[in-house]
Specification:
Elements (H helix, E strand, L loop, with lengths): L23 E2 L9 E12 L3 E5 L4 E6 L12 E9 L5 E9 L5 H15 L1
Parallel strand pairs: 1-2, 4-6
Antiparallel strand pairs: 2-3, 2-5, 3-4, 5-6
C-alpha cells in the first residue's frame, strides 16, 4: 500500500440509510408488548371499517391504515403486517395485507412450529 493520499477514499460523505425493524411473526396468544408484527389468520367477521382475524390461538381487530385493492370477507386467509396495540384494546393497524389464496394452512402451521422449535 502506498502512502499517497490520492488513493484514499472518504466514505464519510456517502448517504446512510436507516434500516427499519422487520415485522416479527407471532401467535396472537403470545403477545406481551406492542410492536411491529406479522400475523396469519382467517377473517371471522367484517364491519364497515374493521375486521376480526383469528390465527387459531386468539383473535384481533384489524384496522386498515392504507387503501387496499382487496375485498375483505369472512373465511379468507390473510397475512397482515402492521403495528399491534394492546391498550385500550388489542388491535392491529395494518400497513400491508396479503391474500393467501393457495396456502395449505396445516402445512404452514407445521412449518411455523418447526421454525419456532429451532429458534428456542
Amino acid at each position: 500500500m502506498s502512502n499517497d493520499d490520492s488513493s484514499f477514499q472518504d466514505f464519510s460523505s456517502e448517504k446512510k440509510y436507516l434500516r427499519k425493524k422487520p415485522y416479527c411473526e407471532i401467535n396472537l396468544s403470545e403477545l406481551s408488548k406492542p410492536g411491529k408484527y406479522r400475523v396469519v389468520g382467517t377473517v371471522t367477521s367484517v364491519t364497515e371499517d374493521t375486521f376480526i382475524i383469528n390465527d387459531g390461538s386468539d383473535q384481533i381487530e384489524a384496522i386498515l391504515t392504507t387503501p387496499q385493492n382487496l375485498e375483505v370477507k369472512e373465511g379468507i386467509l390473510l397475512r397482515l403486517f402492521g403495528f399491534i396495540e394492546l391498550e385500550p384494546k388489542k388491535q392491529i393497524k395494518v400497513s400491508i395485507v396479503q391474500l393467501l389464496r393457495d396456502v395449505d394452512v396445516d402445512t404452514y402451521t407445521q412449518i411455523k412450529e418447526l421454525e419456532q422449535s429451532l429458534i428456542k
